[in-house]
């Protein structure tokens, strides 16, 4: 969840360009966007035990502008120690 200092009217999108992967600001200051492990362009890299995606924050609902942000999201998981034998 993110909290903005000013009301947000832009678009927050993760990965793929479809409605399930984005929210549109409606002048509130708090938003939450769930990023699924198996959708919205999330990539799973087994060798590193990670999930990757890209978060786009546009401050205008339809234009790309200076100040827009692009963030990489990384979720690392571990299986702990495994003993065989």
Polypeptide structure, described:
This protein has 85 residues and is mainly β. It has one domain (2-75). The chain contains no helices and seven strands. The chain has strands spanning 2-3, 11-14, 22-24, 30-31, 43-45, 50-58, 69-76. Strands 2, 3, 5, 6 and 7 form a five-stranded antiparallel sheet that branches. A two-stranded antiparallel ribbon has the order 1-4. A hairpin with a 7-residue loop joins strand 2 and strand 3 (22-24). The mean pLDDT is 83.
Order of helices and strands: EEEEEEE
Number of strands: 7
- The N- and C-terminal alpha carbons lie at a distance of 44 Å
Structural class: mainly beta
Biggest sheet, in brief?
Answer: 5 strands, antiparallel
Mean pLDDT over all positions: 83
Low-confidence stretches: none
Key features of this structure:
mainly beta; two-stranded antiparallel sheet; ZP_dom
In short:
The chain is mainly β.
Present the secondary structure layout:
Layout lengths: L1 E2 L7 E4 L7 E3 L5 E2 L11 E3 L4 E9 L10 E8 L9
